[in-house]
Each structure stands twice: as C-alpha cells, then as structure tokens.
Amino acid sequence: KNQNIETAPNVGEAVSKAELFFKENGKKLSVAAIAVAAVALIIIAVSQFYVKPLKAEAANQTFTAEQYFRERKKEKALNGDGNILGFAQIIDEYGKKAGASVYFYAGVCELQNGNWEQAINYLENYKGTDAILAARAKACIGDAYVGLENYSKALACFEAAAAEADNLFAATYLLKAGAVAEKLGDDAKALS
Fold first, then answer.
1. Positive or negative, the Cα torsion across 159, 111, 150, 182?
2. Rounded to whole angstroms, what are the CA distances from 2 to 5, 6, 8, 97?
C-alpha cells in the first residue's frame, strides 16, 4: 500500500509532463504525422500506378520472346521481330522490373550466338530463386568461359553449378568440370 501511495505522485507527474510535451510540440508532431502519411501515400501510389503496370507490360513483352525462345528462334528471342521486343530490349527498357528470367534467357541466347562476354554479363545478373535455374545459369557461365578459353574460371563455375542443386543435371556439370580439369592438366581433379 505504501508503494502505491508513493508512486501515485510520480504517475501524476509523468502524465503532466506528457501533457506539457504534447502542448508544446503538438504542431510539430501533427506536421510530422502528416508528412509520414503523405510519403506512405506517395509510395503506394507509385507502386499501384507506375510499377505494377510496368511489370505487367514487361510480362506481356516477355511472353512472346519466350515463345520465340522455345521455337529456337534465338535471334528473334534476343532482339525481337520489329513489333515485339526481345530479351535484350526488355532488359534495356524495363530492367529488373521484367523479372529475373529475362536475364537467363538473354544469356542463353548470347551463349548460343557465341557472344561469350555478353552471355556472362546477362547470366551473372540472373538472380532467380529457383535452384535448378540458378545452377544452370552458373553452368552456362562456365560454358562461356570455356568459349573464352579461361578454363580455371570455367572449372569453378561448373563445380559451383553442381553444388547448387543436387539433381539430374549435377552429373552433367561434374562431367564438364572433369573435362575442363583434364584440359588444365589436373588429372587427379578430373578423376574425382
């Protein structure tokens, strides 16, 4: 009981300090609250009326480029057909808003065209979450380094691809790593 009696004036003092603080700083607090609300509304508006439509437009453009890719029309898939954008143009126009897969597709197209450095550039920008595609992207980077005759980097890429996802494709990546290790003269590593 004695404790409650002693703390009652402290509680009253704290409440009066809080009241005094709000009286002195009420306008500043109101302005700050309005500013925070305005910033939140701007962020929501930009997201709803700019970013979402841009992503939808990029997805529509990507659809046709993916169809060309499946039909093995790599030049149209990469550079478009004059009416529809290709992966390279989609990346230039929409960037990361187009999604991670466009970087993968563009990298594979460049790899098939023999443009090793551009393929590496696109594939290194692929940031997908699918483990199988991430491993495939690393293996494609390894293939590009083989094309550039940089076998030590190719070996590292193939080993990383095999470690990324333990699936049916990992054996292929390990086989490529073995062939590259053999090319480097490291027979023990090639055998392992």
1. positive
2. 5, 6, 10, 65
